[in-house]
Amino acid sequence: MRGQKARVGDERISPNGYHYTRTAKGWELTGRLVGAAKLGRDLLPTERVRYLNGDRLDNSEDNVEVYVVKQGSNNKKRARIEAKIEDLQAQLEELDAQEAS
Question: Over 60: is that where the pLDDT of 1 sits?
Fold first, then answer.
């Protein structure tokens, strides 16, 4: 394939071990294509695929499972941001104390 333009239906394996298939839209993860076929629709941006046996190259319908990525709540996000602010504030106070001495 090297040096030739990829055609729809061509396949490749990336260095990270994922299997890709060339579609009219471009290169797509084969597992996502299998998951979409199982559902009879395109996957949503919040949907991912999981390889039940851990083998990324085993794109059989029995091995590919579609799941929804959980979105963190705003309360959790707020708590993380507030914790970062507190940490940064403490660092600033420490720097001020060092400069004052």
Answer: no
Closest to 29 measured CA to CA, from 11, 7, 4: 11
CA angle (80 as vertex; 78, 81 as ends), nearest 5: 65
Whole-structure pTM over 0.70, yes or no? no
- State mean pLDDT over 53-72: 90
Q: Is residue 1 part of a domain?
A: no
How buried is residue 65: exposed, middle or buried, by Cβ count under 10 Å (0-12/13-18/19+)?
middle
Do 19 and 37 share a domain, yes or no?
A: yes
Q: CB–CB of 58/51 below 8 Å? A: yes
